[in-house]
Amino acid sequence: MFLLIAIIALTAMGKVFYLQVAEGGKWTRIAEEIGLRYRTVPATRGNIYSDNGSILATSLPFYRVAMDPTVADTEVYSKGLDSLANLLARFFKDQTATQYKRQINDARVSGRQYIILNKNLIKYPDKKIMAQWPIFREGRNKGGIIFEKVDRRVRPFSYLGYRTIGFINENQQGAGLEFSFNDHLAGKDGSALFQRISGGRWKPVYDGTEVKPIDGYDLQTTINVNIQDVSEAALLQALVEHDAEYGCVVVMEVKTGEIKSISNLSKSGGKGRYREVFNYAVQGLNDPGSTFKLFSMMALLEETPMRLSDSIDTGNGQYKYYNSVMRDHKPGGYGKITMREAFEISSNIAISRKIQDYFGHNPQRFIDYLKEIGLGSPLGFQITGEGNPKIKDPKDKSWSGITLPWMSIGYELELTPLQVLTFYNAIANNGALVRPILVKSVKKADRNIENYHADVIKRRICSSSTLKQIQQLLEGVVERGTAQNIKNAHYKIAGKTGTAQRIKDGRYSRSYYTSFVGYFPADKPKYSCIVIIDDPKGFRQYGSNVAAPVFKEIADKIYSIDLRMHAPWMVSKPEDQALPVIRAGYRDDLDLICKNLKIPVEDRPTDPWVITQAKNQYVTYENNDIIPGIVPNVAGMSLRDALFILENQGLRVNYRGNGRVVDQSQKPGSKALKGSTIYITLS
User: Fold this and answer.
1) What is the pTM of this model?
2) N or C end of the chain: smaller count of CB under 10 Å?
3) d(C-alpha 327, C-alpha 319), whole Å
4) In 10 A of CB 236, how many CB atoms?
5) Domain 584-682 maps to which CATH number in 2.60.40.3080, 3.30.420.10, 3.30.10.20, 3.30.365.10?
6) Average pLDDT, the chain
7) What is the rounded distance in angstroms from the CA atom of residue 391 to the CA atom of residue 366?
């Protein structure tokens, strides 16, 4: 008996060893297939908002419709199955009612506790409707209905600002705000117990041990949807017209440093097709070309005794530095000109010669000046991956005798468009260099978790006298220089054109990197902007006739939208009269007032809105025509009436004071731009 028991024990131990070691992997897989496991329940990602609260990106809940057909009791199941199958067939329209009935019934008979009724996801309103269907209305525990929530990232404005808003993939790689602020947007995932079922699917168990996910925070950005739309449309039109390789536009608010739009478009596929694949504005490093002459002029005005009235002979338009020849754009040259004229007409020879004359013996002094004003370092922008400026140093092996003169006109160094714009913005901002921002706050509902402000990197990048002269130079470029084609009578523009030749196979080619950067209105700057268009084709290949017109189109449209830049149209205040409350408004209301005060009324027009005049002891009415799409005259109206009329014309109303309207910023009879703001004053 002892031997028998020993043999049985040894056999059992051997079987255990065999199952655990030899067949361990097999049985582990089987256990996983029928077992339970805690799985991650993703948190809902936070929203991204524009400056006025419009949603730029959000996670919308969709639902997968599944069912445990074994849960419902026999009576509920029998009575409701036919109706449920019919409703499913009519809703999804991919199977007949008979097929749905067979699918559910087969699963119940075989004891399957989880089936997906349809692979298509449904929206929340559809979920609420389905929850009232036969069998489903009994709920999860008695009817077996399972609505599995699946979040999908949605962009209400489609591809508007696509690269700026960005993305993040399953490997946690991405771009733009989605990637840069992922820690804030992602939230904290939860967990729940799931059971593996046939087909490799997992069914939630809901045993009360679930850990609820914590939803992500929201981002409040500085992006203005209208300005973003204007920028992208103008850029796309120019890229298609010139068959260019790519382009970008950045619009910044001067005082606050808030980025109002960033657009990056690259050629994709056939002619005329462009999309956002790379953030050139933030990451794209290039020779800035003639826009860099601003910094050369600043260095000359700050570090040398040169004056703008000083003359220089540019000769026949060619000047030799060692074994390289520098040329001006004009054939035959400009001859003898002042330094003011040299900047306005963008003379390469004049500016490079002055830099060489004053800094040639000590080029490190010029480089130190550039780095002192901040050009040598990244801005620390809120989007990950900002390009690092590349400015050569005389100690570099690549430095040569022609480096300084070529650098002075925007070659042999690399900057991003955003970095160039930021320094031009400082000229508009009375010399204050502010770090641009794209995100104003991180929010949870209406509560701010974290706030961001445009830090002042440098309070003054140059002296007051230099700043004033630089501002005059930038205005002169548009008034008399290379950008005269964008001069207009409504407001002044200040800026600089840029055209840099591309180097291909070690030689300068006929391919150009064109740009225009500046600000407007020049006398009271509100916005700064940079436009880049790379490799335009055709006979127009310079910043003045490729990039500058795009700047003007964007500026014109912003000027028409932002009426705070306009000189206000003032409504003349009505003269005091014996009947001050009877001036303008809704005719029936005025009739009631006159009736109660026993004031006689003459001339009763048929229009509902009227303007009144007092004559002796009478009140007369005149029609106040309210025409769709036209700014109405609200002078003399109460706030209630003015709001009703103006908002029905698609205008946003900003008001101050009490009483009746005495001033309005948009002239009656002019075109009413939907979404624009009208300012009214009451007294």
Assistant:
1) 0.74
2) N
3) 7
4) 17
5) 3.30.10.20
6) 87
7) 11
How far does the chain reach from its first CA to its final CA, in angstroms? 114
pLDDT, tens digit, for every residue of 405-423?
A: 999 999 999 999 999 999 9
Tokens for 271, please give them: 């002619």
For 582, other C-beta atoms within 10 Å of its C-beta total 22
Q: Which region, left, alpha or beta, applies to residue 559 given φ > 0 means left and ψ of -120 to 50 means alpha?
A: alpha
Angle at 408 between CA 407 and CA 410, to 5 degrees: 60
How many Cβ atoms sit within 10 Å of the Cβ of residue 27? 11
State the Rg of the chain over Cα.
35
Measured distance CA(326)–CA(504) in Å, rounded: 18
- CA-to-CA distance for 499 and 10, rounded, in angstroms? 89
CB 464 within 8 A of CB 492: no
Q: SS3 for 468?
A: helix
Domain boundaries, the chain: 40-221, 228-565, 584-682
Which two tokens mark 615?
Answer: 């004559």
Is 40-221 in CATH node 3.20.20.20?
no
637-654 confidence digits (pLDDT tens): 888 888 888 888 888 888
**Contact (Cβ atoms closer than 8 angstroms) between residue 667 and residue 625:** no
Q: What is the CATH number of domain 228-565?
A: 3.40.710.10
User: Which secondary structure element, helix H or strand E, spans residue 253, and what is its range?
Assistant: strand 246-253
Q: At what angle do helices 348-359 and 363-372 cross, to 10 degrees?
A: 110
Interatomic CA distance for residues 470 and 604, integer angstroms: 62
Contacts within 8 Å (CB) and 24+ apart, 76-80: 76/135, 76/138, 76/142, 76/143, 77/108, 77/135, 79/134, 80/133, 80/134, 80/135
